[in-house]
Specification:
By secondary structure, the protein is α+β, with helices and mostly antiparallel strands. The protein has a single domain, classed as DD-peptidase/beta-lactamase superfamily (Beta-lactamase), CATH 3.40.710. About 30% of the residues lie in helices and about 20% in strands. It contains five helices and seven strands, in the order H-E-H-E-H-H-E-E-E-E-E-H. The strands form two sheets. A five-stranded antiparallel β-sheet has the order 3-4-5-6-7, with helices on both faces. A two-stranded antiparallel sheet has the order 1-2. The protein starts with a helix and ends with a helix. The model has no long low-confidence stretch (mean pLDDT about 85).
């Protein structure tokens, strides 16, 4: 079974992720957010994916794919991605996530470089997830994505059962990290 079919059958369908797929043909393009870039005077040379737009403003990219599937470019909605995050935190809390075994989650959220110490607050590398501690010493795991005109960030605290995410269809910036951190702090209070 190919990776695309496996994800559909064993992850997306069981979690009810109906707006998720690896290719443009897998999703409803009417629901696809348009990636954007800020266009300056020499953007044409640097930004070949830009469809059109005025100099000195935001311009849309064309909808694109990369030949390096599946290393990225999963198309999903915030609602669908939240279903996956909640499956993770349910397993982390000792429950069942429906698509993940507890052993799999432990492997995803383990320091694969064995560099964590009690006083180490900087990031450690898990399996596609980066572990760190916030200013209060609480552990969190994050996964970010970035392609031309698109930025995503998901963060979860499996100990508290909280998760948060944000998607942006524009340039990079610390704003996304700060927003998700604040959302996670709030989610911890209601989890």
């Amino acid at each position: 079974m190919g990776f695309r079919a496996y994800c559909g059958r064993h992850i997306f369908e069981p979690l009810g992720m109906t707006a998720t797929g690896w290719f443009l043909e897998d999703i409803d393009r009417e629901d696809h957010a348009t990636p954007h870039a800020f266009v300056d005077e020499d953007a044409g040379a640097r930004e070949p994916l830009i469809a059109s737009g005025p100099v000195g403003g935001f311009a849309p990219y064309c909808l694109y794919s990369f030949p390096t599937y599946p290393d990225g470019l999963l198309r999903t909605s915030a609602s669908d991605y939240a279903k996956f995050l909640m499956a993770c935190v349910r397993v982390g809390a000792g429950g069942t996530g429906g698509v993940l075994a507890a052993e799999t989650l432990r492997s995803m959220l383990k320091d694969h470089e064995d560099t964590r110490t009690a006083d180490r607050l900087e990031a450690v590398q898990g399996l596609c997830w980066v572990g760190s501690r916030d200013g209060r010493g609480r552990e969190r795991w994050s996964h970010s994505g970035a392609d031309p005109g698109v930025r995503t960030l998901a963060m979860m605290d499996v100990d508290s059962g909280a998760a948060a995410l944000a998607f942006a269809n524009g340039p990079a910036g610390e704003y996304l990290y700060e927003a998700v951190e604040r959302l996670l702090d709030h989610a911890r209070t209601v989890a």
